[in-house]
Every structure is written in structure tokens, then in C-alpha cells.
Specification:
18% of the residues lie in helices and 42% in strands. By secondary structure, it is α+β, with helices and mostly antiparallel strands. It folds into three domains: 75 residues, Immunoglobulin-like (Sandwich), CATH 2.60.40; 208 residues, Beta Barrel (Thrombin, subunit H), CATH 2.40.10.120; 80 residues, Pdz3 Domain (Roll), CATH 2.30.42. The strands form six sheets. Strands 8, 9, 12, 13, 14, 15, 18, 19, 20, 21, 22, 23, 24 and 25 form a 14-stranded antiparallel sheet that branches. The chain has a six-stranded antiparallel β-barrel with strand order 26-27-28-31-30-29. The chain has a five-stranded mixed sheet with strand order 1-7-6-3-4. Strand 12 and strand 13 form a beta hairpin. Helix 1 packs antiparallel against helix 7. The longest helix has 25 residues. The protein is globular and about 90 Å long. This is Stage IV sporulation protein B. It comes from Thermodesulfitimonas autotrophica.
Length: 449
């Protein structure tokens, strides 16, 4: 291909790229969630040199309509969906915005250490145990039939597998009757059926099928927030996984109760630390666990606890209100004493899809670093406070750098439990297309060279 033709092709591609970018920015609506009464500044959207030439044009929606200089910002005093357009001299459109304006809930930040007990919707296969038959041979009927570690046994012989004891009794009954047991199993969303013939175990003196099973998972975490009007709470900021199978616990029911921290094992590089806690049976802090989601566990508290650090609830921050800078983390290190520690939010990623890496948080408090080495296991769910708002919760520690960890937006958590009516803001089609388009142009140019 002649050089002039190649240059023309590359110029055409870049012209198309920038034209699509302009059309996307000017006419493809960008959705933005706003808290009722919040002032929105446009200072970071456009270079200061052209801001004085920009006009914000809004439809007549009860705010007066017409256009106004962009430097005044924007504020809505009524909930609803509103559209605005940024235009050069009020004539050439540059950006179209759609605002979802809603009141944000006010909640009490948590920080209390809590013990969790989650009962699965069935029993979980956590391993195999060979059956020593009467002839001395070792057999594993369940493994031979195809059951795997991580399988969730939903029913046995048509009856719900509500506990490991129910399963054991059904196996013994089938063995005495000389027939196989029928198991209905959930394997990562697939429903499977197995028939397994119990064998008499010479050592145990009863019929077995060679499985190790468990019907509950327990652990220690941190309460993130609770809502005074509904007693709804959120904790952890991530899904509870079964420690043996590393699969999410399919929750049937669960309970939450305050934990008493007896000690702390500090974290080291490559070796995360942990809180060591026991259930505080005399505490008034308790509740139900009703959902185990990727954004944390949720349920209702039986009664509202008194907060030692906050006399009134605080607003939940929307994702765009969170920024790098100083913040405070609430957590318990000794007994049930709630304390505040200094941290720094180093990075904010509002468009991370799964929520586990919304924030990168670094512990800066000297006392916390001395006592724990940074973020440790059991801190999951510790609330993050910035500018008087609940902005997020700590979720995971960096194994190689224990003073750092990931966090989740509080907005995701309150939406997951139904307290926030905002639709989730995600990257637009053009946001996702733009990098691919630019990469295609570069590849094409290199290929032609």
C-alpha cells in the first residue's frame, strides 16, 4: 500500500475515533447518581480555560429551566430523574448528563466485632473418609458414585438434609434395609442425583458412605453499619466462603452475636494476622443472618445497640463522593472496646464491577501498625469514615503488604440490602468501546508499517 494511502487510512481512523468520542460525550447520556441537596461541581470535567465559555442547559423541571454558567455548579432540591447538557456558548453540545436524584439513608457506622454462624441449605461435603469394611478392605462408596468435595447435599431419600445428623440417620436406615440412599446434590448451581450403597464400617459399627460433611460455618468479622429505622445491618463486605471447600455458603439461616476479642496475632509479610475472639453471650448485640452475598452478609438486629462514638446516624457516601485522602477506620482490638484509627484511601475505582477492589486503603495510625501490623483477618467489614460520611468497609488484606488492603463502597452494601434506591452506575457502551477502538487503530498502523 502506498505511503500516502496508509497515512490517509490512519488519519481517517483517528478522525472516526475522535468523532465517535465527541458524539458519545455530547449526545450519549452519562448517568450520575446524586444525593438530594448535594452540590455538583464541574471544575474537574473541563479545562479552566474554557469553563467561562460553557453553559449548563437544563429542561424546565421545576428548577427554573434555561441555561446558567457552569461555574455555579448544580444542585437539586427534589428527587427524580433530570437531564442537563453542557454546551459551548450554549450552542455546541459537549456533554449530556442524566441525574438520578434520591435521598441517601443515614446509618450508624459499626466497627463492633461479631461472631457469625451460617447454616447451609443442606450439608456440605468437606472431604472423604474411607469405610473399613467387614473384610478389612477400604472403600469409599460416595467417591465411587461421583460425589465431590464442595457438593451441597440438599436432600437424602426425598427428605431435606437439614443437618449432618439427619444424613447419618438416613444412611444407617438405608444400610439396615439393604438399599442405596438417593442424594440430591447442588454442584455449583447444577442439580445432580446420586445413588450410593452404604457399607457397614467395622471400626464404627454403623453404616457409612465415606464422606466428611458439615452443616454450618462459623467465623469472626466486623459489623459495618446498621439502620436505626429498620434495624437492617450489613457486615464483612464480602461473601462468606466455606473454609474447606472455598465455595460460597448457600445460606439457609444464620445468627450474629457480638464477639469478645481476646487477643491479636499481628500480620507479617506473606502471613496475614488475625483477631482471636469468642462469643460474648451476655451482649445485647445480636441478630439474624438472612443473606450471604458478594457484598457482605445482611440481616436484622434484634435490638439497636448504643454507639459509643456516634450519637446520631451519618449519611452514606455515594461512590463519586469518595476521594483519595485521610479517613478513619472503626474496629475492635481488645474486648469489645470500639476505637477509631487513621487510614489513608490511596485509590478509588468507582467502575470496578465486583466491588471487592473499589478502594485501596493504607493504615497510617502508628498504634494500629504497632499492635496488628496493619489489616488483619477479622477486620473485614470495618467501616471507613471520610468527610463525615460512611464511605466503605475494609474487605481484604494485601498478603505481601499487610498495612494495605482492599475496600468496598458503602453504596454497594446499602444498595444490596435494599436501603438505597439508586440504580448502579456502570461504564457506558462507549466507555468500554473506546480502548478497543484505539487499540485497533494502533495495531492497524503497525501492521501496515
Amino acid at each position: 500500500m502506498p505511503r500516502k494511502l496508509r497515512l490517509f487510512a490512519v488519519f481517517s481512523f483517528f478522525l472516526l475515533f475522535f468523532t465517535l468520542n465527541y458524539l458519545a460525550a455530547a449526545f450519549w447520556p452519562v448517568k450520575q447518581s446524586l444525593a438530594l441537596g448535594e452540590w455538583l461541581s464541574f471544575n474537574n470535567l473541563f479545562p479552566p480555560a474554557i469553563q467561562k465559555h460553557l453553559v449548563l442547559v437544563t429542561a424546565d423541571n421545576g428548577r427554573g429551566g434555561g441555561g446558567q454558567p457552569i461555574g455555579r455548579g448544580l444542585r437539586f432540591t427534589a428527587p427524580g430523574t433530570f437531564q442537563a447538557r453542557v454546551a459551548l456558548h450554549g450552542l455546541i453540545p459537549l456533554k449530556t448528563l442524566v441525574f438520578e436524584v434520591r435521598p441517601v439513608p443515614r446509618v450508624y457506622p459499626g466497627g463492633q466485632a461479631v461472631g457469625l454462624l451460617l447454616h447451609a441449605k443442606g450439608v456440605i461435603v468437606i472431604g472423604y473418609a474411607d469405610v473399613i469394611a467387614t473384610d478389612g478392605s477400604r472403600v469409599s462408596p460416595a467417591a465411587r458414585a461421583g460425589l465431590m468435595v464442595g457438593d451441597l447435599i440438599l436432600s437424602i431419600d426425598g427428605r431435606p438434609a437439614t443437618s449432618d445428623q439427619v444424613v447419618k440417620e438416613a444412611i444407617c436406615r438405608a444400610g439396615r434395609e439393604g438399599r442405596p440412599v438417593v442424594l440430591q446434590v447442588n454442584r455449583r448451581g447444577r442439580l445432580l442425583r446420586f445413588e450410593v450403597q452404604p457399607r457397614l464400617c467395622r471400626r464404627a459399627g454403623c453404616y457409612r458412605i465415606g464422606l466428611l460433611i458439615r452443616d454450618a460455618t462459623a467465623g469472626v468479622g466486623t459489623l459495618t453499619f446498621y439502620h436505626p429505622e429498620t434495624r437492617l445491618y450489613g457486615a464483612l463486605g464480602h461473601v462468606v466462603m466455606d473454609a474447606t471447600t472455598a465455595h460460597p455458603v448457600e445460606l439457609a439461616k444464620g445468627s450474629l452475636v457480638e464477639a469478645f476479642i481476646q487477643g491479636v496475632r499481628p500480620g507479617e509479610k506473606g502471613k496475614p494476622g488475625e483477631k482471636i475472639g469468642v462469643i460474648n453471650e451476655n451482649s445485647s448485640l445480636s441478630g439474624t443472618i438472612e443473606a450471604n452475598t458478594e457484598y457482605g452478609i445482611f440481616g436484622h438486629l434484634n435490638r439497636l445497640p448504643e454507639h459509643p462514638l456516634f450519637r446520631a446516624p451519618i449519611p452514606v457516601a455515594l461512590a463519586h463522593q469518595v476521594h483519595p485522602g485521610r479517613a478513619q477506620m472503626l474496629t475492635v482490638l481488645t474486648g469489645n472496646r470500639l476505637e477509631s484509627f487513621d487510614v489513608e484511601i490511596q485509590r478509588v475505582n468507582p467502575f470496578y464491577e465486583r466491588g471487592r477492589k473499589d478502594l485501596i486503603v493504607r493504615v497510617t495510625d502508628p498504634r494500629l501498625l504497632h499492635f496488628t501490623g496493619g489489616i488483619i483477618q477479622g477486620m473485614s467489614g470495618s467501616p471507613l469514615i471520610q468527610d463525615g460520611r460512611l464511605v466503605g468497609a475494609v474487605t481484604h488484606v494485601f498478603i505481601s503488604t499487610p498495612e494495605k488492603g482492599y475496600g468496598i463502597f458503602a453504596e454497594r452494601m446499602v444498595r444490596a440490602c435494599g436501603l438505597l434506591a439508586f440504580p448502579e452506575v456502570k461504564p457506558t457502551f462507549f466507555d468500554e468501546l473506546r480502548p478497543s477502538l484505539l487499540k485497533a487503530v494502533v495495531k492497524y498502523y503497525i501492521k501496515q508499517e
